Target: 1-acyl-sn-glycerol-3-phosphate acyltransferase
Amino acid sequence: MVTIRSKTFDILFGLWTALFGAFIPVLMLVGSPRMVRSVSRRWVRGALFLLKHVVGLDYVERGLENRPAGPCIVLSNHQSTWETLAANVLFPDVAVVAKKELLKVPVFGWYLRNQPMITIDRELGTQALRRMIDGAKTALAEGRPVLVFPEGTRKSPDEPIDFKRGVEMIYARLDVPVLPVVVNSGRFWGISGGARRPGTIVVSYLPAIPPGLTGNEMVERATAAMEAERLRIG
Model:
């Protein structure tokens, strides 16, 4: 039954995505970035609706009181495709730091490019980091939160949280709070895809880390808090 529900979701989600692909020519002519983000959120809400009512996979948010009132850097662990999609609803107008390869995904890639997101090419090394910082500065100046997956890639829910280098430099340059976020989506939507399983994904917002620390201090505090929460929510 789990496999049947998951396959049904795939079919319906494909049709839903194709429908939004049909809007692209119109948005190319008259759509602003804000309009593209609004349409993207509708697409994601539809995907979350299908997950809930077809697969039986829902989510719950905890620690909402910890979210800063203004723009911030959101640091989230990364276990599945779910949080990449859901971020557009959890954080309206979010600017996601994403790998440039995602721009090649049909429909999804076009919406990413035109929201706009902050895309990076890891092969560029320090130049990629500078572009990331510049893109984040622009987004924050527009009042948009910036979402970074500091682990760099999706990981098993049983692997400890470990940041890649570069996050500390972003924090040091931007002078805004950091909101650590922990999800356990990998328990229901695996790294390599496969069947989506019913259940409830936990999205846990931890106490924000203020600006003004050294980059290494921020990383140590965020990593310790997120790892403890990963173990707690399972």
About this structure: The mean pLDDT is 91.
